[in-house]
Each structure stands twice: as C-alpha cells, then as structure tokens.
Amino acid sequence: MKRYLVLENGKVFEGEAFGAQKEVIAEIVFTTAMTGYIETLTDQSYKGQAVLQTFPLMGNYGIISQDREGERVGASAYIVNEECEQPSNFRCETTLDSFLKNEGIPGLKGIDTRALTKILRDKGTMNGMITDDIKNADIEKIRSYRIVKPVDEVSVKEETVYEAEGEKLYRVALFDYGIKKNIIRCLTKSGCEVTLLPHDTPASRVRELAPDGLFLSNGPGDPTDNVSEIETLRDLMNDSIPTMGICLGHQLLALAHGFKTIKLKYGHRGANHPVKDTDTGKIYITSQNHGYAVTDDSIDPSVARSWFVNVNDMTNEGIEYINEPSLSVQFHPEASGGPKDSEELFDMFIDLMNGRRS
Questions:
Q1: pTM greater than 0.90 (yes/no)
Q2: pLDDT of residue 39
Q3: Among residues 39, 229, 317, 334, which one is catalytic?
Q4: Of 186, 192, 247, 273, which residue is the catalytic one?
Q5: Catalytic residue among 199, 250, 257, 332
Q6: Average pLDDT for consecutive 10-residue bins of the chain (358 residues)?
Q7: Max CA distance (Å), the chain
C-alpha cells in the first residue's frame, strides 16, 4: 500500500505504508542513531514530531518492552528506509510493524531517507503530512501546524514515589516534563527516593516535601512556552535546593535565571554527539534529542558559566551556576552514549546534595 510524505514546501516522497493506518501532520526531524529505536520512539521529547532515521535499516532486533523509555510512544510517526520484517534477537517480543499498529502510530518506509535528510539539513526542520491519499494534503494546513503545550500531555497527572535501591540516602523531587525512565533508574540506584511530580506542581508543594535535591527532566517543545513552569523554578531559586536539569530541564532552569534560548536549524538528535568539558578539555560521546539551545551570550557571567559545548557547532551543552548549588546539561547522561562517559554527572548531583561540590 502506498503512503506519502508531503513537506510544507510541496516536496512529495512516495513510499510504502507500515504501522497504523492513520494520517498525521507533524514536525519532521531526523536522528542519526544507528540503534535504540525503541528508546527513540518512546521518548516523550518527540511529542508532535515524525522521526526520520538516517540509518537505513530499523527493526532488526524487534521490540523489547523492557527497553521502553516511556509508557507511550512519543513520536507522531516513524520514517525509515527499510523496515526489518523478520527480527532476530532472543529478547524480541514483537515486530516494529506490529508495535506501531498497536500504538496507533503510522510508519512510512521505502523512501530516500538520505535525500530527505539533506533537505532538512539545508532548509531546516519543517512540517510534513503523512497520508495514504495525496489529495488530502493541504499545504497551508501543513505549514501552519504548531506543537502546542506538549508538556501538558506527556507529564504525569499525579505524584508517584520510586523507592531507592538499597538504603535510602536522599530524597529527590523530580519535575516530569516528559521524563525518560532511565533518569529515575540512575537516581534510585544511587540511593535516592524519587517523588515524580506533575509539571505544574507549585513551589509550595516542593517546599512541603523538603527534598534534599530537585531534578528537572527532559521534555518536548519550545521551552519558552512553559511560562508557569519557569516561574515556579524562579520562585524556588531562593531556596538553594541542590538542582540538576537535563535537556528541557536545562533550558527551563536557564530561562528562570533570565538567559535566552533559540531554535536550532535542524536540532541535535542521535547517539554520538561530541561534547567538550570546558574545564578539562575532555570529550564526551553523548545521546541528544533537542531542537532548542541556550545561547551562550545570554548567560550572565556573574550568575553562571558555560560548562559544556557541542564540538560540532559550538552551541551550549551545559551550565554550572556560581552562587547556588545548581547544574544542568543539554545532553542525556542517562542514555549511555559513551556508553557510560557522562553518568558521573549524577554523582555530581549527589555531591551537591552532600554539600561537597564547590
């Protein structure tokens, strides 16, 4: 069965349908990761986006539910060059096609993914429509599509407590803006009892919990849209709670301090992005998924300093705050891109809670 991708500039890609039979308009983004498609699809940071894989073959080890990063699929659609119909792995539970059908997510395969990626790199991220009937494609409707309040949709609705593995050493309040499960795992295995909070939890509730530390998760969308979340963080800044942010959490913490963010031309999405520690010169291989970045020239040097930079385009990848126990990174230390290069950042957060980090 034929299926089409119609870009907002009118370019049409004809391919084959797999996954759910559904029509969607989404922001088209690409990831260079060669594996980890289960984690990619269930990453809530992809809310409102159709994920294009640059690596040609996907689905070769099937679907393994234990590897999910979220209970739901975050992506609106999935685009690949070739879908493996007969996966081979001892942990495999089902095929990629069946998984997408069950989750209600349309897939498009058999298109020239390299040509599509080149368009997005040259022109920048753009919207597109995936449809089985090209006559349904309305270019103006595609162009006008916007991802609206995605954090509202992906955040938990009620507080949830995750017990520490072994002895409970710390209590962490964690704002869920679209969290990846492995962030919670990294904290609980370090002796943290984690209270997962809805994104709109007021500062007063955080104070009632009296946590040893505050953690800000990843999530989707334009960080500047989260006005109330930014105000909550600004309110909590005076409490000097040891704080760590990842991805969207990094951006929201920066905005709470008066810094600025910009939308990148086509973002950083993949599992091998090189990031440099400006203190040591060490290069970390990182997993990333973001379309926005904090601008270095907006960082007030009396408040914070740029800590990590992206080696490819020199955009900001991390901030350390000077007069408060806070740090944040744009990449995903829990995703094991190196594979464990940057897990030490969780140890730094633990140090903040112990009052040891200078």
A1: yes
A2: 96
A3: 334
A4: 247
A5: 332
A6: 97 98 98 96 98 98 96 97 97 98 98 98 97 97 97 97 96 98 95 98 98 98 98 96 98 98 97 95 95 98 97 97 96 75 87 76
A7: 63
Q: Please state whether the peptide bond connecting residue 242 to the residue before it is cis, i.e. omega within 30 degrees of 0.
A: no
Q: Which residue segments constitute the domains of the chain, with CATH numbers given?
A: 2-147 (3.50.30.20), 152-354 (3.40.50.880)
247 is a catalytic site residue: yes
pLDDT of residue 340: 64
Q: Among all chains, which residue has been given the structure tokens 């520490």?
A: 164
Catalytic annotation on 334? yes
